[in-house]
Amino acid sequence: MIRSDTTGVARRLLFVSVCAVLTFAAVSARAADAFALSSPGVADGGTLDSSHAASANNCGGGNVSPALQWRNAPAGTKSYAITIFDPDGAKGLGLVHWVLYGVAPSATGLGAGATPAGSVAGTNRTGGPGYYGPCPPVGDVPHHYVAQVYALDLPPDALPAGLTRDALQAAMKDHVLAAASTVLRYGR
User: Fold this and answer.
1) Predicted pLDDT of residue 17
2) Which homologous superfamily does the CATH classification assign to the domain defined by 35-186?
3) CA–CA gap between residue 33 and residue 27 (Å, rounded)
4) Rounded to an integer, what distance in angstroms lies between the CA atom of residue 103 and that of residue 65?
5) How is the chain split into domains, by residue range?
6) 74 and 140 in contact (C-beta within 8 Å)?
7) Does 185 score more than 60 pLDDT?
8) What is the pTM of this model?
9) Strand segments (E) across the chain
10) What is the DSSP string of 44-92?
11) 115 vs 131: CA distance, rounded Å
């Protein structure tokens, strides 16, 4: 009788172990397939070099947008939108450094300083279009720049030019299939 109880316990332990391994494998595979954004050469939370800083107001930069790469876009993606926002800027009220949308669904990233053909420029912190690099006050703790990419079910020409970040977010409501972000830092 003891022998059959031991066999039953061993079988249950084996079953539970196999289930745990399969569950872990499924969760790992799902995480590996998640929509993700990175900036080549800069780890999440890493520091941008000065070439990406603003070129105005003694900021010392070249105003070159950082390179961004994304992977594992969801099925049905018809375009992408990209924003870079500094939540530390304006004494914690935040500053918008880049709003770009209408990026073709075939894109998997942007090179440094690149704006893809056919994409639509939104309005940055200066009230103008395009990228405007970081320029935190001298001596401030390095600011965080949240780069986000949104996979949308909207065609590239669906939205008008010149949208602010807030207007873009309102227009994207119910059209975001997935979003991914990375945090970049810069101080001077």
Assistant:
1) 52
2) PEBP-like (3.90.280.10)
3) 10
4) 15
5) 1-33, 35-186
6) no
7) yes
8) 0.84
9) 36-38, 68-71, 79-86, 95-103, 109-110, 120-121, 143-152, 176-186
10) TTPBPPGGGS-SSTT--S--PPPPEEEE-PPTT--EEEEEEEETTHHHH
11) 9
